[in-house]
Amino acid sequence: MSQQVNRAATQSITQKFLNKETLKYVFTTHFWGPVSNFGIPVAAIYDLKKDQKTISGPMTGALVVYSAVFMRYALAVTPQNYLLFGCHVINEVAQLGQGYRWLDYWYFGGKEKAEAK
């Protein structure tokens, strides 16, 4: 009995997720563009552990604006691209964290604290 239930569940999941529409979506730029773009937020999250003095304030600011623009773009296109939106939400949060670290180091006494250690 449990084998029949497992088989039915497997078939149900397969039919729901591995169908023509899903495969058509996976082979479009609507999917691969955001997937390849995820390298930016991954690098930004990794950089949150690096030394604060290596952060570029202007570049961080540019990336904050870039992600904000593309979050809006991801919702403006038809059909809406939630994968692209999610990528840029993650990047926006990571870049804002980097921006805070940059401001802390150069303007809020972080440099003096680091030199005191």
TrEMBL record:
GO terms for cellular component: mitochondrial inner membrane. It is a multi-pass membrane protein. Its main location: mitochondrion. One of its GO terms (biological process) is pyruvate import into mitochondria. It comes from the Eukaryota. It is found in: Mitochondrion inner membrane. Keywords: Membrane, Mitochondrion, Mitochondrion inner membrane, Transmembrane, Transmembrane helix, Transport. InterPro entries: MPC. The keyword Flavoprotein does not apply. Belongs to the mitochondrial pyruvate carrier (MPC) (TC 2.A.105) family. Mediates the uptake of pyruvate into mitochondria. This is Mitochondrial pyruvate carrier.
